[in-house]
């Protein structure tokens, strides 16, 4: 995310009133975050994750998968646009407006040089405070995924380094009544980067 703006009195209403100029605007606890257009690898990673996650989410009925741009309002001073996210269906139905989404189950951000600070610190802390049960930060340069949960002081990091697997899969189990989702990290990073 580009440089945060100096004014710390941004609200969701103020952000939503900004003109559509092709940039992505978010506000976290009153701090405005502005993001330039993403890179090819960034978008390819989101697509690869969506292709893997969507069949799981649909077959288990564990929520609904969506991608940004999407205005997810956590409170009157926090509006985020996770790259990819799974949310609980409000009233068991697809929402008609982003504002109808009240419970995000999984938020995923793919890092880029301009987003690293906001994704790893500003948004991560806010997602944890809001009680989002899983937050993944995908670092394409390091070929790793940081997994954060609400009470974590440090991330769980299943990753691949120099071809050696520290952990070959990232597992997500939103419901104990269904088998978990397993992301093959080697296959994912190879598809996106090789």
Shape annotation: globular
Number of helices: 4
Helix-strand pattern, N to C? HEEHEEEEEHEEEEEEH
Strand content: 25-35%
Instruction: Tell me the structural class.
Output: alpha+beta
Rg, Cα atoms, Å = 16 Å
Strand sequence of the main sheet, in spatial order?
A: 3-6-7-8-9
Detail the poorly predicted runs: 1-5
Major sheet size, sense and barrel closure: 5 strands, mixed
Mean pLDDT: 86
Q: State the helical fraction.
A: 25-40%
How far apart, in Å, are the first and last alpha carbons? 25 Å
Structure summary, number of beta strands? 13
Q: Say what oligomer this is.
A: single chain
Task: Give the topology, please.
Layout: H1 12-16, E1 24-28, E2 31-35, H2 40-60, E3 64-67, E4 72-75, E5 78-80, E6 84-87, E7 104-110, H3 116-130, E8 134-139, E9 144-148, E10 160-161, E11 164-165, E12 169-172, E13 181-184, H4 185-193
């Amino acid at each position: 995310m580009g440089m945060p703006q100096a004014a710390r009195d941004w609200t969701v209403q103020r952000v939503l009133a900004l003109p559509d100029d092709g940039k992505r605007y978010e506000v976290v606890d009153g701090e405005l975050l502005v993001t330039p257009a993403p890179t090819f690898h960034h978008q390819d990673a989101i697509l690869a994750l969506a292709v893997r996650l969507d069949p799981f989410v649909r077959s288990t009925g564990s929520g609904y998968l969506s991608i940004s741009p999407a205005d997810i309002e956590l409170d009157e001073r926090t509006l985020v646009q996770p790259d990819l996210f799974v949310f609980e269906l409000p009233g068991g139905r697809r929402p008609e407006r982003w504002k109808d989404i009240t419970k995000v189950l999984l938020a995923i951000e793919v890092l880029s040089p301009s987003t690293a600070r906001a994704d790893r610190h500003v948004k991560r802390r806010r997602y944890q405070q809001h009680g989002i049960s899983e937050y993944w930060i995908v670092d394409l340069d390091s070929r790793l995924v940081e997994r954060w949960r609400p009470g974590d002081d440090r991330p769980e990091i299943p990753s691949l380094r120099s071809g050696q697997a520290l952990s070959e899969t990232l597992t997500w189990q939103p419901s104990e009544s269904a088998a978990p989702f397993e992301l093959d990290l080697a296959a994912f990073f190879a598809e996106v980067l090789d």
